[in-house]
Design a protein that fits this description.
Blueprint (H helix, E strand, L loop, with lengths): L1 H25 L2 H11 L1 H5 L3 H15 L9 E4 L2 E4 L3 H38 L4 H29 L1 H12 L13 H5 L2 H33 L7
Antiparallel strand pairs: 1-2
């Protein structure tokens, strides 16, 4: 029972780290705007820097549930129009639902994590950190296999990975946008998504490595004598 709970604790910790990494990176306009400057994207896609920056802020605020819609206006190749058309708007409804569900999963994982910690605090005070460290390390080893698999896939064929991701998480084909008619795909080219996914993965690795180092240190140096390693 204790081993199962400690393993669940480890996975809950990993889930919280993953979703936090996505939220702090993917929903941060300061991630995108410098990339736009480096790529000189505004000039390439025929809009002003102001319109481009406002468009990404509009999108991220909607995903973060800070506004009810993504209605806005831009001048694209000299033509004034709504920022996003009906197809793009419908796709973002799906994206927002996916993101908000991920947040709910992370909040649930955090609650379970806290409850497991309290359980060990009340029932296994002396060995609490030993159990939690061991459970986290066990979960981390399984997570590493997933990370290596997807990491290799992302680095070697990001287009294939990104297509697979959309076919798994979306039941329609609204995500297949046309750069000739859909501004969203122009302001978020595959290069941006590649850098975004890479940044999220690096952030998750940093969290996991730090937590793993602390867990290993505790198990080697601090675990109670007689505790099964």
């Amino acid at each position: 029972m204790r081993r199962v709970l400690s393993f669940i604790f480890g996975w809950c910790f990993i889930i919280v780290c993953v979703v936090f990494s996505i939220k702090s990176t993917a929903l941060n306009p300061d991630f995108y705007i410098p990339k736009y400057e480096e790529m000189d994207l505004a000039s390439d896609i025929g809009v002003s820097k102001k319109d481009l920056n406002q468009s990404i802020r509009l999108l991220l605020e909607y995903l973060d549930d800070k506004r009810a819609d993504i209605k806005g206006y831009i001048t694209w190749y000299g033509v004034s129009q709504e920022t996003f058309n009906e197809k793009e708007t419908s796709h973002m409804v799906d994206v927002k639902a996916l993101y908000q569900n991920a947040l709910r999963v992370a909040k649930t994982a955090l609650i379970i994590l806290v409850m497991i910690v309290l359980y060990f605090y009340w029932n296994e005070t002396e060995c609490m950190f030993a159990y939690l460290s061991k459970g986290f390390l066990t979960a981390m080893f399984t997570f590493i296999f997933m990370l290596v698999f997807f990491g290799f896939w992302i680095f070697t064929d990001f287009t294939s990975f990104w297509t697979w991701f959309h076919t798994i998480f979306f039941t329609n084909q609204l995500w297949l946008l046309d750069p000739n008619t859909d501004f969203m795909i122009c302001m978020l080219p595959e290069t941006i998504f590649y850098k975004l996914v890479l940044a999220c993965v690096i952030k998750v690795i940093c969290f996991v490595v730090l937590a793993s180092g602390l867990a290993i240190y505790y198990m080697v140096k601090k675990a109670p004598i007689g505790f099964e390693r």
